[in-house]
């Protein structure tokens, strides 16, 4: 059997640490999670954590990136299922907001994440999501489906609405009651970007 390369071993170590961090942050929160405990759980040392992530905050950033990236992929899958286009974009936003009901997402990404890592708009995962939204909006603009506004500005605001809606749901005392309100408001605000077309009788449709 061929031995693993150094790169493969390093990647395995990183994966173990991210998995352990994800579990600890979800169960105890960032502040209460012990670096010694989470590293020992996967047979590693605190030195391995420092070497791979710099510190506890660096591990948190890697965990948030992993979860938020998965959230974006799930949201995009919901958009494709809805048929793409504007309907798909709305389905993506609604799916992302709905994931705020998941305890792991609530605690790590939406509550501890901004407190520890700062403005979510600056996270790498959010930037990748932004680029995906820009791509979709450019297609819609080329078909005349949305108003002639700056695409990046519109993408940033739409993503910001969805993110802040998810943050609201996560922080709410009754997340399940807040969720439909948040999604409805997101869709209402987003609809302002749609082009209106007058039919033969002069009515807006």
From TrEMBL:
<dbReference type="GO" id="GO:0003677">
    <property type="term" value="F:DNA binding"/>
</dbReference>
<feature type="DNA-binding region" description="H-T-H motif">
    <location>
        <begin position="34"/>
        <end position="53"/>
    </location>
</feature>
<dbReference type="InterPro" id="IPR001647">
    <property type="entry name" value="HTH_TetR"/>
</dbReference>
<keyword id="KW-0804">Transcription</keyword>
<keyword id="KW-0805">Transcription regulation</keyword>
<protein>
    <submittedName>
        <fullName>DNA-binding transcriptional regulator, AcrR family</fullName>
    </submittedName>
</protein>
<feature type="domain" description="HTH tetR-type">
    <location>
        <begin position="11"/>
        <end position="71"/>
    </location>
</feature>
<keyword id="KW-0238">DNA-binding</keyword>
<dbReference type="Pfam" id="PF21351">
    <property type="entry name" value="TetR_C_41"/>
</dbReference>
<dbReference type="InterPro" id="IPR049484">
    <property type="entry name" value="Rv0078-like_C"/>
</dbReference>
<dbReference type="InterPro" id="IPR009057">
    <property type="entry name" value="Homeodomain-like_sf"/>
</dbReference>
<dbReference type="Pfam" id="PF00440">
    <property type="entry name" value="TetR_N"/>
</dbReference>
């Amino acid at each position: 059997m061929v031995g693993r390369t150094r790169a493969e071993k390093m990647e395995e170590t990183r994966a173990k640490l991210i998995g352990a961090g994800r579990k600890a942050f979800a169960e105890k929160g960032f502040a209460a999670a012990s670096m010694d405990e989470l590293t020992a759980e996967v047979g590693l040392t605190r030195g391995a954590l420092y070497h791979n992530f710099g510190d506890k905050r660096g591990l948190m950033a890697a965990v948030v990136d992993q979860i938020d990236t998965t959230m974006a992929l799930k949201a995009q899958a919901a958009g494709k299922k809805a048929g793409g286009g504007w309907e798909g974009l709305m389905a993506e936003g609604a799916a992302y907001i709905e994931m705020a009901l998941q305890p792991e997402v609530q605690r790590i990404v939406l509550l501890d994440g901004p407190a520890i890592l700062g403005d979510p708009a600056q996270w790498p995962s959010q930037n990748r999501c932004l680029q995906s939204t820009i791509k979709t909006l450019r297609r819609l603009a080329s078909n005349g489906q949305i108003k002639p506004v700056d695409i990046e500005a519109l993408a940033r605001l739409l993503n910001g609405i969805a993110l802040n809606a998810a943050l609201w749901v996560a922080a709410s005392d009754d997340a399940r009651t807040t969720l439909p309100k948040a999604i409805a408001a997101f869709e209402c605000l987003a609809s302002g970007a749609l082009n209106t077309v007058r039919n033969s009788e002069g009515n807006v449709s």
